[in-house]
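User: Can you model how D-glutamic acid sits in this protein?
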Amino acid sequence: MNQNPSSPILLFDSGFGGLTVLAALREHLPQAPVIYAADLAGIPYGEKTEAEVAARAAGLLGRLAERFHPRLICIACNTASTIALGMVRDVLETPIVGTVPAIKPAAAMTQTGTIGLLGTAATIRQAYVDNLEAEFANGKRLLRHAAPELVAAAETKLRGGTPDPAIFTRAAQGLLHKEGGDRIDTVVLACTHFPLVQQELAEAFGNKVRFIDGAQGIARRIAYLTQGQSFDRREDDFAIVTGDGQNNAALLGGLEPFGIGRILRI
Ligand code: DGL
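Assistant: Here's the modeled complex, given as structure tokens:
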């Protein structure tokens, strides 16, 4: 394992949803140098095939690992993790932490026994999610709904825009209008973008449900795996983005609160 004190932790997502994981990581490891990588040329992953997501994630992470020698990589994206975590672990030597839908804590929280899960279309159809449901939500009811519009809404909000409120209403109704959906008291935000718009979602759900996401659990796992390592941030943390056509100024305004002061394009 690379334990050079300036070796970064690399967080990866299709876009900026992984910032919700970064925010939790800052609480646990404020000194850790971080590189945040966003595959903006590939977003949204949730609308792609499994093969496309796996190829993009593995290819990009391979290039980034070679160039920046991270001590650990966090796939801060439920879609990429539920599809490609095993494969990326097989091809890279760097320790990899994935993002798993928080079904286990949701099952412990629910009083009614009915849990809602919002994710991307690709995430909610994964066997990975079926397995989590069988293992941790046995005897409970898990209702899944794909809400791809929330990804773009979160990206818009991060850049200072105001997403259409109808997007949140549609996401809430998608769950609540399912058979038995009126009993949902706990909602798993199974896409790292969604906590960025949690307030809007809470209003759309009529403030009647509790939300749970994986960010704190992932941050704790990273802290555990890097226990005893020293951290020395020698330069400002920065973001790497793929693709052109982004408005850097709007983006930087959204990134600065997360301690990212510069953007590099690859
Ligand atoms: N942030 C991502 C996730 O956790 C992916 C969103 C997307 O690209 O569709 O699923």
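A couple of observations from the model: The beta strands are 9-13, 34-38, 72-75, 96-97, 114-119, 141-146, 186-189, 210-212, 238-241, 263-265. The mean pLDDT is 96.
User: Helpful, thanks.
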